[in-house]
Amino acid sequence: MRQERLNFARARAFAAPAAPWMPHEKWLFALICLTTLFFACVTPPFQAPDENQHYMKALMLSEGRMLTEQRGPKTGADLPAAAIDLHDVHFPTGASAAPRLFDKGMLVKAWNAPSTEARRFADFPNVANYSPTLYAPGALGLRIGDSLGLPRLGAFYIGRIANALLAIAMLGAALRLLPFGRPAMLATALLPTFAYQSGSLSPDAVIDGLGFLGLALALHVAFGDQAARRGTALFLIAPLLALAKGVYLPLMAAGLRWPKAWRDPRPWLILAAMTSGALVFLLWMKWSGASHHGSQALYQIVSRKTGETVLTAPLERQLAVIAQDPVAYLRILAASMTERAPVYALQIVGRFGWNAILLPLLAYPMAALMLGAAMLSGSGTRFSAGQRLWWLAVAAGIVLLIETAMYLTGTPLGADYIQGTQGRYFLPVLPLALLAVMPACPLRGARALFTGTATLLLPIAAATAFDSFWVHGFVTADGMPPHHTLIRALTLPSPRW
Protein backbone atom coordinates (compact mmCIF):
# COMPACT_ATOMS: atom_id res chain seq x y z
CA MET A 1 0.00 0.00 0.00
CA ARG A 2 2.79 2.43 0.90
CA GLN A 3 4.53 1.73 -2.42
CA GLU A 4 1.30 2.39 -4.34
CA ARG A 5 0.91 5.75 -2.62
CA LEU A 6 4.49 6.69 -3.47
CA ASN A 7 4.02 5.66 -7.09
CA PHE A 8 0.88 7.81 -7.24
CA ALA A 9 2.76 10.81 -5.87
CA ARG A 10 5.65 10.32 -8.31
CA ALA A 11 3.28 10.12 -11.24
CA ARG A 12 1.86 13.52 -10.33
CA ALA A 13 5.19 15.24 -9.73
CA PHE A 14 5.09 16.99 -13.11
CA ALA A 15 2.41 18.29 -15.47
CA ALA A 16 -0.19 18.01 -12.72
CA PRO A 17 -3.79 18.56 -13.87
CA ALA A 18 -6.32 19.78 -11.33
CA ALA A 19 -7.56 16.85 -9.29
CA PRO A 20 -11.29 16.05 -9.36
CA TRP A 21 -13.29 17.42 -6.45
CA MET A 22 -13.81 15.00 -3.58
CA PRO A 23 -17.20 14.85 -1.81
CA HIS A 24 -15.89 16.43 1.40
CA GLU A 25 -14.32 19.29 -0.60
CA LYS A 26 -17.64 20.03 -2.29
CA TRP A 27 -19.33 20.11 1.10
CA LEU A 28 -16.72 22.44 2.58
CA PHE A 29 -16.95 24.82 -0.38
CA ALA A 30 -20.76 24.86 -0.01
CA LEU A 31 -20.29 25.63 3.70
CA ILE A 32 -18.07 28.61 2.84
CA CYS A 33 -20.71 29.90 0.40
CA LEU A 34 -23.54 29.60 2.92
CA THR A 35 -21.55 31.21 5.74
CA THR A 36 -20.40 34.11 3.56
CA LEU A 37 -23.98 34.90 2.50
CA PHE A 38 -25.13 34.49 6.12
CA PHE A 39 -22.64 37.13 7.27
CA ALA A 40 -23.65 39.43 4.38
CA CYS A 41 -27.24 39.39 5.60
CA VAL A 42 -26.83 39.14 9.38
CA THR A 43 -23.91 41.49 10.11
CA PRO A 44 -25.32 44.99 10.85
CA PRO A 45 -24.25 47.81 8.52
CA PHE A 46 -20.69 49.07 8.96
CA GLN A 47 -19.67 46.37 11.45
CA ALA A 48 -16.66 45.29 9.39
CA PRO A 49 -13.47 47.33 9.84
CA ASP A 50 -13.65 50.63 7.89
CA GLU A 51 -16.83 49.48 6.12
CA ASN A 52 -18.24 53.00 6.37
CA GLN A 53 -15.34 54.37 4.30
CA HIS A 54 -15.49 51.45 1.87
CA TYR A 55 -19.20 52.16 1.39
CA MET A 56 -18.49 55.80 0.52
CA LYS A 57 -15.79 54.80 -1.96
CA ALA A 58 -18.05 52.23 -3.64
CA LEU A 59 -20.89 54.77 -3.74
CA MET A 60 -18.59 57.28 -5.44
CA LEU A 61 -17.66 54.69 -8.04
CA SER A 62 -21.34 53.78 -8.58
CA GLU A 63 -21.87 57.41 -9.62
CA GLY A 64 -19.16 57.12 -12.26
CA ARG A 65 -16.22 58.77 -10.46
CA MET A 66 -12.91 57.04 -9.79
CA LEU A 67 -10.78 59.66 -8.06
CA THR A 68 -11.35 61.39 -4.74
CA GLU A 69 -10.75 65.10 -4.19
CA GLN A 70 -9.31 67.23 -1.42
CA ARG A 71 -11.24 69.97 0.31
CA GLY A 72 -9.08 71.57 2.91
CA PRO A 73 -7.97 68.87 5.34
CA LYS A 74 -10.59 66.39 4.07
CA THR A 75 -10.23 63.80 1.31
CA GLY A 76 -13.31 62.20 -0.21
CA ALA A 77 -16.20 63.03 -2.52
CA ASP A 78 -19.53 64.81 -2.73
CA LEU A 79 -22.22 62.16 -2.09
CA PRO A 80 -25.97 61.93 -1.35
CA ALA A 81 -26.66 63.10 2.19
CA ALA A 82 -29.09 60.20 2.77
CA ALA A 83 -26.27 57.72 2.09
CA ILE A 84 -23.92 59.48 4.49
CA ASP A 85 -26.67 59.54 7.13
CA LEU A 86 -27.00 55.75 6.86
CA HIS A 87 -23.74 55.65 8.80
CA ASP A 88 -23.68 58.95 10.67
CA VAL A 89 -27.29 58.84 11.92
CA HIS A 90 -28.61 55.28 11.78
CA PHE A 91 -25.57 53.03 12.26
CA PRO A 92 -22.68 55.09 13.65
CA THR A 93 -19.44 53.39 14.60
CA GLY A 94 -16.87 54.21 17.21
CA ALA A 95 -15.47 52.95 20.48
CA SER A 96 -17.84 53.14 23.44
CA ALA A 97 -17.89 51.77 26.96
CA ALA A 98 -21.65 51.22 26.71
CA PRO A 99 -22.88 47.89 25.28
CA ARG A 100 -24.42 48.10 21.83
CA LEU A 101 -27.28 45.94 20.60
CA PHE A 102 -28.96 46.00 17.19
CA ASP A 103 -32.67 45.34 16.69
CA LYS A 104 -35.27 45.14 13.95
CA GLY A 105 -36.54 48.63 14.75
CA MET A 106 -33.21 50.16 13.74
CA LEU A 107 -33.44 48.48 10.33
CA VAL A 108 -37.06 49.60 9.85
CA LYS A 109 -36.20 53.18 10.76
CA ALA A 110 -33.24 53.27 8.35
CA TRP A 111 -35.31 51.61 5.60
CA ASN A 112 -38.06 54.21 5.92
CA ALA A 113 -35.73 57.20 6.24
CA PRO A 114 -36.68 59.96 3.77
CA SER A 115 -34.47 60.27 0.72
CA THR A 116 -33.71 63.80 -0.48
CA GLU A 117 -31.69 65.33 -3.30
CA ALA A 118 -29.32 66.96 -0.80
CA ARG A 119 -25.63 66.18 -1.05
CA ARG A 120 -22.64 66.85 1.14
CA PHE A 121 -18.93 66.08 1.25
CA ALA A 122 -17.94 62.71 2.72
CA ASP A 123 -14.47 62.29 4.19
CA PHE A 124 -12.84 58.87 3.66
CA PRO A 125 -9.06 59.42 3.55
CA ASN A 126 -8.09 55.89 4.65
CA VAL A 127 -9.19 54.43 1.31
CA ALA A 128 -8.69 57.44 -0.97
CA ASN A 129 -5.76 55.89 -2.84
CA TYR A 130 -7.32 52.46 -3.25
CA SER A 131 -7.93 51.34 -6.82
CA PRO A 132 -11.54 51.50 -8.08
CA THR A 133 -11.21 47.87 -9.23
CA LEU A 134 -11.51 46.88 -5.57
CA TYR A 135 -14.95 48.44 -5.35
CA ALA A 136 -16.43 47.40 -8.70
CA PRO A 137 -18.68 44.58 -7.37
CA GLY A 138 -19.94 46.64 -4.43
CA ALA A 139 -20.53 49.64 -6.70
CA LEU A 140 -22.44 47.45 -9.14
CA GLY A 141 -24.63 46.20 -6.31
CA LEU A 142 -25.30 49.72 -5.09
CA ARG A 143 -26.19 50.75 -8.62
CA ILE A 144 -28.59 47.82 -8.99
CA GLY A 145 -30.21 48.73 -5.67
CA ASP A 146 -30.72 52.31 -6.81
CA SER A 147 -32.16 51.21 -10.17
CA LEU A 148 -34.65 48.99 -8.32
CA GLY A 149 -35.80 51.98 -6.30
CA LEU A 150 -34.60 50.52 -3.00
CA PRO A 151 -33.80 52.81 -0.06
CA ARG A 152 -30.18 53.35 0.87
CA LEU A 153 -30.22 50.46 3.34
CA GLY A 154 -31.57 48.07 0.70
CA ALA A 155 -28.95 49.13 -1.84
CA PHE A 156 -26.28 48.69 0.85
CA TYR A 157 -27.21 45.03 1.33
CA ILE A 158 -27.37 44.43 -2.43
CA GLY A 159 -23.82 45.81 -2.61
CA ARG A 160 -22.72 43.41 0.11
CA ILE A 161 -24.29 40.42 -1.66
CA ALA A 162 -22.62 41.39 -4.96
CA ASN A 163 -19.27 41.56 -3.16
CA ALA A 164 -19.87 38.19 -1.53
CA LEU A 165 -20.89 36.49 -4.77
CA LEU A 166 -17.74 37.69 -6.55
CA ALA A 167 -15.55 36.49 -3.66
CA ILE A 168 -17.21 33.06 -3.81
CA ALA A 169 -16.84 32.91 -7.61
CA MET A 170 -13.14 33.80 -7.50
CA LEU A 171 -12.51 31.27 -4.73
CA GLY A 172 -14.28 28.57 -6.76
CA ALA A 173 -12.26 29.43 -9.87
CA ALA A 174 -8.99 29.35 -7.89
CA LEU A 175 -9.83 25.97 -6.34
CA ARG A 176 -10.66 24.63 -9.79
CA LEU A 177 -7.38 25.90 -11.28
CA LEU A 178 -5.13 24.79 -8.44
CA PRO A 179 -3.26 21.74 -9.75
CA PHE A 180 -2.52 20.30 -6.30
CA GLY A 181 -2.91 21.04 -2.60
CA ARG A 182 -6.56 22.09 -2.72
CA PRO A 183 -6.98 21.53 1.08
CA ALA A 184 -4.50 24.36 1.75
CA MET A 185 -6.67 26.95 0.00
CA LEU A 186 -9.93 25.47 1.27
CA ALA A 187 -8.69 25.61 4.86
CA THR A 188 -7.72 29.26 4.50
CA ALA A 189 -11.16 30.15 3.15
CA LEU A 190 -12.76 28.14 5.97
CA LEU A 191 -11.31 30.50 8.56
CA PRO A 192 -14.28 32.65 9.69
CA THR A 193 -12.44 35.87 8.84
CA PHE A 194 -12.64 35.09 5.10
CA ALA A 195 -16.43 34.65 5.11
CA TYR A 196 -16.97 37.62 7.43
CA GLN A 197 -14.91 40.06 5.35
CA SER A 198 -16.23 38.71 2.04
CA GLY A 199 -19.78 39.23 3.32
CA SER A 200 -19.20 42.96 3.79
CA LEU A 201 -18.44 45.90 1.51
CA SER A 202 -14.76 45.52 2.36
CA PRO A 203 -12.38 45.23 -0.62
CA ASP A 204 -10.95 42.15 1.15
CA ALA A 205 -13.46 40.15 -0.89
CA VAL A 206 -11.65 41.18 -4.08
CA ILE A 207 -8.15 41.19 -2.57
CA ASP A 208 -8.38 37.66 -1.18
CA GLY A 209 -10.10 36.35 -4.30
CA LEU A 210 -7.47 37.80 -6.61
CA GLY A 211 -4.69 36.58 -4.32
CA PHE A 212 -6.05 33.03 -4.50
CA LEU A 213 -6.57 33.30 -8.27
CA GLY A 214 -3.09 34.69 -8.90
CA LEU A 215 -1.46 31.92 -6.88
CA ALA A 216 -3.57 29.15 -8.44
CA LEU A 217 -3.05 30.43 -11.97
CA ALA A 218 0.73 30.77 -11.57
CA LEU A 219 0.97 27.22 -10.21
CA HIS A 220 -1.33 25.95 -12.96
CA VAL A 221 0.88 27.49 -15.65
CA ALA A 222 4.10 26.32 -14.01
CA PHE A 223 3.12 22.73 -13.21
CA GLY A 224 0.31 22.05 -15.67
CA ASP A 225 0.33 21.23 -19.35
CA GLN A 226 -1.75 24.21 -20.57
CA ALA A 227 0.77 27.04 -20.25
CA ALA A 228 -0.11 28.69 -23.55
CA ARG A 229 -3.85 28.48 -22.89
CA ARG A 230 -3.62 29.96 -19.41
CA GLY A 231 -0.79 32.38 -20.19
CA THR A 232 -3.17 35.04 -21.45
CA ALA A 233 -5.08 34.93 -18.16
CA LEU A 234 -1.83 35.72 -16.32
CA PHE A 235 -1.69 39.12 -18.04
CA LEU A 236 -5.24 39.86 -16.87
CA ILE A 237 -4.91 38.70 -13.28
CA ALA A 238 -1.44 40.16 -12.56
CA PRO A 239 -2.45 43.84 -13.06
CA LEU A 240 -5.68 43.31 -11.13
CA LEU A 241 -3.75 41.69 -8.28
CA ALA A 242 -1.22 44.53 -8.27
CA LEU A 243 -4.03 47.11 -8.20
CA ALA A 244 -5.70 45.22 -5.35
CA LYS A 245 -2.56 45.57 -3.24
CA GLY A 246 0.88 45.62 -4.76
CA VAL A 247 2.40 43.60 -1.91
CA TYR A 248 0.51 40.49 -3.11
CA LEU A 249 1.86 40.53 -6.66
CA PRO A 250 4.89 38.37 -5.66
CA LEU A 251 2.45 35.54 -4.89
CA MET A 252 2.70 34.71 -8.60
CA ALA A 253 6.43 34.08 -8.14
CA ALA A 254 5.38 30.80 -6.52
CA GLY A 255 5.05 29.51 -10.07
CA LEU A 256 8.71 30.10 -10.86
CA ARG A 257 10.78 26.91 -11.08
CA TRP A 258 14.00 25.93 -12.77
CA PRO A 259 13.02 25.10 -16.37
CA LYS A 260 13.81 21.70 -17.81
CA ALA A 261 14.74 23.39 -21.08
CA TRP A 262 15.76 26.96 -21.90
CA ARG A 263 12.94 27.15 -24.42
CA ASP A 264 10.33 26.51 -21.74
CA PRO A 265 8.18 29.70 -21.90
CA ARG A 266 6.44 29.27 -18.56
CA PRO A 267 8.88 31.13 -16.25
CA TRP A 268 9.10 33.97 -18.76
CA LEU A 269 5.32 34.19 -19.02
CA ILE A 270 5.02 34.53 -15.25
CA LEU A 271 7.82 37.11 -15.03
CA ALA A 272 6.35 39.12 -17.91
CA ALA A 273 2.90 39.09 -16.32
CA MET A 274 4.33 40.22 -12.97
CA THR A 275 6.22 43.02 -14.72
CA SER A 276 3.04 44.20 -16.42
CA GLY A 277 1.28 44.15 -13.06
CA ALA A 278 4.03 46.22 -11.45
CA LEU A 279 3.85 48.80 -14.26
CA VAL A 280 0.07 49.12 -13.95
CA PHE A 281 0.42 49.56 -10.18
CA LEU A 282 2.99 52.35 -10.60
CA LEU A 283 0.83 54.10 -13.19
CA TRP A 284 -2.18 53.98 -10.87
CA MET A 285 -0.17 55.39 -7.96
CA LYS A 286 1.06 58.24 -10.14
CA TRP A 287 -2.41 59.00 -11.52
CA SER A 288 -4.19 58.80 -8.16
CA GLY A 289 -1.45 60.89 -6.54
CA ALA A 290 -1.94 63.57 -9.16
CA SER A 291 -5.52 64.05 -7.94
CA HIS A 292 -4.08 64.95 -4.53
CA HIS A 293 -1.52 67.39 -5.95
CA GLY A 294 1.11 64.68 -6.29
CA SER A 295 0.92 63.43 -2.70
CA GLN A 296 -0.67 60.52 -0.89
CA ALA A 297 -3.80 61.03 1.19
CA LEU A 298 -2.71 61.22 4.83
CA TYR A 299 -5.12 60.42 7.66
CA GLN A 300 -5.32 60.46 11.44
CA ILE A 301 -4.93 57.32 13.54
CA VAL A 302 -4.88 56.49 17.23
CA SER A 303 -1.39 55.37 18.17
CA ARG A 304 -1.39 51.85 19.57
CA LYS A 305 1.55 52.85 21.78
CA THR A 306 0.49 56.20 23.26
CA GLY A 307 -3.27 56.33 22.61
CA GLU A 308 -2.85 59.79 21.08
CA THR A 309 -4.32 60.87 17.74
CA VAL A 310 -1.47 61.22 15.25
CA LEU A 311 -1.06 61.66 11.49
CA THR A 312 0.29 58.98 9.19
CA ALA A 313 3.65 59.73 7.63
CA PRO A 314 4.30 60.82 4.04
CA LEU A 315 5.72 57.83 2.21
CA GLU A 316 8.87 59.60 0.99
CA ARG A 317 9.83 60.83 4.44
CA GLN A 318 9.16 57.48 6.09
CA LEU A 319 11.19 55.76 3.39
CA ALA A 320 14.04 58.14 4.19
CA VAL A 321 13.85 57.06 7.84
CA ILE A 322 14.35 53.42 6.79
CA ALA A 323 17.14 54.30 4.38
CA GLN A 324 18.96 56.30 7.05
CA ASP A 325 19.24 53.31 9.40
CA PRO A 326 18.09 50.00 7.85
CA VAL A 327 19.33 47.99 10.84
CA ALA A 328 17.17 50.02 13.20
CA TYR A 329 14.16 49.37 10.98
CA LEU A 330 14.86 45.63 11.02
CA ARG A 331 14.78 45.78 14.82
CA ILE A 332 11.45 47.64 14.68
CA LEU A 333 10.12 45.03 12.25
CA ALA A 334 11.19 42.10 14.42
CA ALA A 335 9.90 43.69 17.64
CA SER A 336 6.52 44.63 16.15
CA MET A 337 5.92 41.22 14.59
CA THR A 338 6.91 39.42 17.79
CA GLU A 339 4.71 41.67 19.91
CA ARG A 340 1.70 41.46 17.59
CA ALA A 341 1.90 37.75 16.67
CA PRO A 342 -0.78 36.66 19.19
CA VAL A 343 -3.10 39.42 17.91
CA TYR A 344 -2.51 38.35 14.30
CA ALA A 345 -3.31 34.75 15.22
CA LEU A 346 -6.68 35.74 16.71
CA GLN A 347 -7.53 38.08 13.84
CA ILE A 348 -6.68 35.68 11.04
CA VAL A 349 -9.11 33.14 12.53
CA GLY A 350 -11.89 35.54 13.45
CA ARG A 351 -12.49 38.71 15.43
CA PHE A 352 -15.74 40.35 14.42
CA GLY A 353 -17.00 43.92 14.40
CA TRP A 354 -14.19 46.43 14.50
CA ASN A 355 -11.98 43.73 16.09
CA ALA A 356 -14.30 43.84 19.11
CA ILE A 357 -15.87 40.36 19.24
CA LEU A 358 -13.88 37.21 19.89
CA LEU A 359 -15.10 33.69 19.22
CA PRO A 360 -15.22 31.27 22.16
CA LEU A 361 -11.55 30.70 22.93
CA LEU A 362 -11.83 26.98 22.18
CA ALA A 363 -12.58 27.93 18.55
CA TYR A 364 -9.01 29.16 18.03
CA PRO A 365 -7.21 25.87 18.78
CA MET A 366 -9.98 24.21 16.76
CA ALA A 367 -9.00 26.43 13.82
CA ALA A 368 -5.35 25.50 14.31
CA LEU A 369 -6.34 21.82 14.36
CA MET A 370 -8.30 22.34 11.13
CA LEU A 371 -5.30 23.95 9.43
CA GLY A 372 -3.04 21.13 10.61
CA ALA A 373 -5.49 18.48 9.38
CA ALA A 374 -5.75 20.26 6.02
CA MET A 375 -1.97 20.27 5.74
CA LEU A 376 -1.82 16.54 6.53
CA SER A 377 -4.51 15.84 3.93
CA GLY A 378 -1.70 15.85 1.37
CA SER A 379 -0.99 17.82 -1.78
CA GLY A 380 -1.09 14.76 -4.06
CA THR A 381 2.25 15.74 -5.63
CA ARG A 382 5.88 15.38 -4.57
CA PHE A 383 8.14 18.42 -4.51
CA SER A 384 11.83 18.91 -3.94
CA ALA A 385 13.15 20.57 -0.81
CA GLY A 386 14.33 23.45 -2.97
CA GLN A 387 10.82 24.07 -4.31
CA ARG A 388 9.38 24.05 -0.80
CA LEU A 389 12.06 26.45 0.46
CA TRP A 390 11.31 28.76 -2.47
CA TRP A 391 7.62 28.84 -1.56
CA LEU A 392 8.44 29.57 2.08
CA ALA A 393 10.79 32.37 0.97
CA VAL A 394 8.06 33.90 -1.22
CA ALA A 395 5.53 33.73 1.63
CA ALA A 396 7.99 35.23 4.14
CA GLY A 397 8.93 37.98 1.70
CA ILE A 398 5.28 38.97 1.24
CA VAL A 399 4.78 39.10 5.01
CA LEU A 400 7.74 41.49 5.27
CA LEU A 401 6.32 43.57 2.41
CA ILE A 402 2.96 43.84 4.19
CA GLU A 403 4.58 45.06 7.40
CA THR A 404 6.84 47.48 5.54
CA ALA A 405 3.93 48.88 3.53
CA MET A 406 2.07 49.58 6.76
CA TYR A 407 5.12 51.28 8.23
CA LEU A 408 5.45 53.46 5.15
CA THR A 409 1.81 54.47 4.78
CA GLY A 410 -0.05 53.74 8.05
CA THR A 411 2.38 54.62 10.83
CA PRO A 412 3.47 57.99 12.33
CA LEU A 413 6.73 59.41 11.03
CA GLY A 414 9.81 57.85 12.62
CA ALA A 415 7.80 55.62 14.97
CA ASP A 416 9.59 52.74 16.69
CA TYR A 417 6.67 50.39 15.96
CA ILE A 418 4.43 49.39 13.04
CA GLN A 419 0.79 50.46 13.14
CA GLY A 420 -2.32 49.12 11.45
CA THR A 421 -1.37 45.61 10.33
CA GLN A 422 -4.28 43.19 10.73
CA GLY A 423 -4.12 39.41 10.82
CA ARG A 424 -6.53 39.21 7.86
CA TYR A 425 -3.86 40.77 5.64
CA PHE A 426 -2.03 37.43 5.72
CA LEU A 427 -4.94 35.37 4.35
CA PRO A 428 -3.76 35.46 0.70
CA VAL A 429 -0.33 34.18 1.79
CA LEU A 430 -1.52 31.32 4.00
CA PRO A 431 -2.32 28.77 1.23
CA LEU A 432 1.23 29.01 -0.10
CA ALA A 433 2.73 28.61 3.37
CA LEU A 434 0.59 25.51 4.01
CA LEU A 435 1.40 24.09 0.58
CA ALA A 436 5.12 24.41 1.28
CA VAL A 437 4.89 22.00 4.21
CA MET A 438 2.20 19.59 2.97
CA PRO A 439 3.22 15.96 2.50
CA ALA A 440 2.50 14.36 -0.85
CA CYS A 441 0.21 11.67 0.56
CA PRO A 442 -2.58 12.14 3.09
CA LEU A 443 -2.21 10.93 6.64
CA ARG A 444 -4.90 8.46 7.66
CA GLY A 445 -7.84 10.26 9.25
CA ALA A 446 -6.61 13.74 8.30
CA ARG A 447 -9.41 14.42 5.80
CA ALA A 448 -12.10 13.36 8.25
CA LEU A 449 -10.58 15.58 10.96
CA PHE A 450 -10.31 18.47 8.49
CA THR A 451 -13.95 18.14 7.50
CA GLY A 452 -15.21 17.70 11.05
CA THR A 453 -13.38 20.67 12.58
CA ALA A 454 -14.37 22.97 9.68
CA THR A 455 -17.99 21.86 9.95
CA LEU A 456 -17.97 22.85 13.63
CA LEU A 457 -15.95 26.06 13.30
CA LEU A 458 -18.10 28.03 10.84
CA PRO A 459 -21.43 27.44 12.64
CA ILE A 460 -19.74 28.55 15.88
CA ALA A 461 -18.61 31.72 14.12
CA ALA A 462 -22.08 32.34 12.68
CA ALA A 463 -23.70 31.86 16.09
CA THR A 464 -21.13 34.21 17.66
CA ALA A 465 -21.98 37.00 15.22
CA PHE A 466 -25.75 36.60 15.55
CA ASP A 467 -25.68 36.43 19.35
CA SER A 468 -23.27 39.34 19.79
CA PHE A 469 -25.00 41.72 17.37
CA TRP A 470 -28.70 40.88 17.80
CA VAL A 471 -29.21 39.02 21.11
CA HIS A 472 -26.71 39.95 23.80
CA GLY A 473 -24.89 43.06 22.58
CA PHE A 474 -21.20 43.94 22.61
CA VAL A 475 -18.73 46.67 23.50
CA THR A 476 -16.46 48.16 20.84
CA ALA A 477 -13.07 48.42 22.51
CA ASP A 478 -9.51 47.33 21.82
CA GLY A 479 -7.62 44.73 23.78
CA MET A 480 -8.55 41.39 25.32
CA PRO A 481 -12.00 41.57 27.00
CA PRO A 482 -12.15 40.71 30.73
CA HIS A 483 -13.72 37.42 31.75
CA HIS A 484 -15.39 36.17 34.95
CA THR A 485 -14.54 32.48 34.58
CA LEU A 486 -12.29 30.51 32.27
CA ILE A 487 -15.16 28.19 31.33
CA ARG A 488 -17.20 31.10 29.97
CA ALA A 489 -14.23 32.43 28.01
CA LEU A 490 -13.58 29.02 26.48
CA THR A 491 -17.17 28.26 25.50
CA LEU A 492 -18.96 31.60 24.90
CA PRO A 493 -18.40 34.63 22.62
CA SER A 494 -16.44 37.43 24.30
CA PRO A 495 -19.47 39.72 24.97
CA ARG A 496 -20.81 36.98 27.28
CA TRP A 497 -17.57 36.56 29.26
Structure, described:
The protein has helices at 2-11, 23-42, 51-62, 81-90, 104-111, 136-147, 152-177, 182-190, 192-198, 204-223, 227-244, 266-290, 315-324, 326-349, 352-355, 363-375, 385-409, 430-437, 446-472, 486-491, and strands spanning 69-71, 74-80, 119-123, 300-302, 309-311, 357-358. Helix 2 (23-42) crosses helix 9 (192-198) and helix 8 (182-190) crosses helix 18 (430-437). The protein is globular, with a radius of gyration of 23 Å. The protein is built from 20 helices and 6 strands. The strands form 2 sheets. It has a 3-stranded antiparallel sheet. A two-stranded antiparallel sheet has the order 4-5. With 497 residues, the chain is mainly α.
Mean pLDDT: 90
SSE arrangement, N to C: HHHEEHHEHHHHHHHEEHHHEHHHHH
**Largest sheet properties:** 3 strands, antiparallel
Q: Identify low-pLDDT runs.
A: 1-15
Structural class: mainly alpha
Q: What's the total number of strands?
A: 6
How are the strands ordered across the major sheet?
Answer: 1-2-3
What distance separates the N and C termini? 50 Å
Strand-residue fraction? under 5%
Give the CA-based shape: globular
Number of continuous helical runs: 20
